[in-house]
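In the previous chapter we treated chains in isolation. Here, by contrast, the input contains two separate entities that must be folded as one system, with a combined length of 373 residues.
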Amino acid sequence: MKRYELLKELAKLVTDQDLVVTSIGGVKPEWYSLMPGNGTMFADLLGCATPFSLGVALNLPHRRVVALDTDGGMLFNLGALCTVGKESPPNLTIIVLDNERYEGVVGGPPTHTSGRADLERMASAAGIPCTATAKTIENFVQSATMMLSDNKTGLMVAKIEPGVFKDIPPERAKESDGIEDKYRFLRHIEQLEKISIRPRYVRE
Amino acid sequence: MEPRLAALVIEGLKRARVRFVVGLPDSMLAGVYVAAGKDPDIKYVAVTNEAEGASVAAGAWITGGRSVLVMENSGLRAACEALSRLGLVNGIPVTMLMGYRGDLGERFHWGVNHGMTMEPILKALRIPYWIIDDEEQIITAITRAVIHGISSLYHTAVIFRTPLVDEGK
């Protein structure tokens, strides 16, 4: 299955009340083109999407949180699986977009998931209660629908084909940098939660 | 850190309205992890390495949960890439509380290098920090570090040196 097709299906399941955290890589421009609102934090750090989304999910337990991580990102920070397993926030769903390679690197060298490494089994062994591996769009939609509604921490490995969607219309292209992404997400949270995170004058 | 001083750390966190503590336990600040874990008003999250901890703290912070990362100062090295990206690329602050392993008088050979690299790394990352050794400074240092993190949208650090911390035997 192709990542863009998968993300299109996910965009139908995610509402403007949910929060999404993406990894670096091709997922960022593709997800932005489908969901250009401010409910996504586009992370700029390999290995950050899952632990960052854990912080979001634990802090806002009443809100659904989706992490769009990657095989390279997850392998970079495998300990985070154990922290997620220990904390098990029921509002967190992690989707690992596994193309079995470092796609952003020249030549697309393989990651360890192209061999024997099985991230779903690792997640299960780390204590994450609901895990799955999807190899087709139908599998993906079925598992994602279930994980977003079952009130359990979920991790799904989505086996995707390599490749980047190249037909994003210019008006849907992501032009923002990390600072702009941060402000958009932060101000979105302030409005959504009716709180002040970064006021003009900071009180204790 | 003895329980009485750890209680001052917790009081400082509460005054700064921090309710999210991320930590990778170490000996110097041992009392802080225990106190944070027991406090009903604080969510304590134990992580597996400090880079992961920086990301967890950042995720909580940007959604309105003021947070700190508590660790040994060697964790600063482990967290360097995460701190660089979160701070320099996104401007999401992580306030760190660290024990000063490798301070002058360090008794463990393995700890000396922690002290050699801590301040150069903090300076290289342009992280404002306060090294404190007086219990009267604890609450003020923590509250000011948290506030400065919010106003600057950049990392801050408070480093606890002897006699505030347990050096171990």
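Residues 3-193 of chain A form a domain with the Rossmann fold fold (CATH 3.40.50.970). Chain A has eight helices and six strands. Compare these points with the single-chain example from earlier in the chapter.
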